[in-house]
Amino acid sequence: MNIVETKIQGLLIIEPAIFEDDRGWFMESFNQQKFEAALLDRNQPVPNFVQDNHSFSNKGVLRGLHYQIAPHAQGKLVRVVQGRAWDVAVDIRKDSSTFGQWVGVELTEQNHKQFWIPAGFAHGFIALEDNTQFLYKTTDYYSKECERSIIWNDETLAIDWKLEEGIELRLSDKDQLAELFDIFKKK
Hints:
Layout: E1 2-5, E2 12-15, E3 19-21, E4 24-26, H1 32-41, E5 51-57, E6 62-68, E7 76-82, E8 84-91, E9 102-108, E10 114-117, E11 121-127, E12 132-138, E13 147-149, H2 173-176, H3 181-185
Antiparallel strand pairs: 1-2, 2-10, 3-4, 5-12, 6-11, 6-13, 7-10, 7-12, 8-9, 8-11
């Protein structure tokens, strides 16, 4: 397992070891001891995962930017098992030196990368292929009362969504009505 640190402390890209031969491939998709050691080596808190989620999206579906507030803030360990997605995390920790900055990573069924997004980040992704299946472990349960979102195309955040020619965006009504980052900052 290779750990890639990003420009924002706490956001990690995990590249699992893949063992391939003429029969196919094998990988550990999660190992608590290795994950814990990687976080402790970086003085990061170790989460307890309580829920696994699985989503299916066709090309152009954009989900986000979602987060949950306390007492049900969520960290997420995300990966794509089929298809291809551009995954984004935005630092919404108001006391952070990287507040309002974002990191994006392409997750595919071929690269097997995973993205660790601790609590304190808004998260979203766009499916870049039909039949994109996205798996994620969360550190707290879903809570409708604590669920929030920031508009995906906020000009202040200026996220590069890697929109490819010919992609027709599809968003939920909720995501189209999400709040601006400037409104979030004033809370």
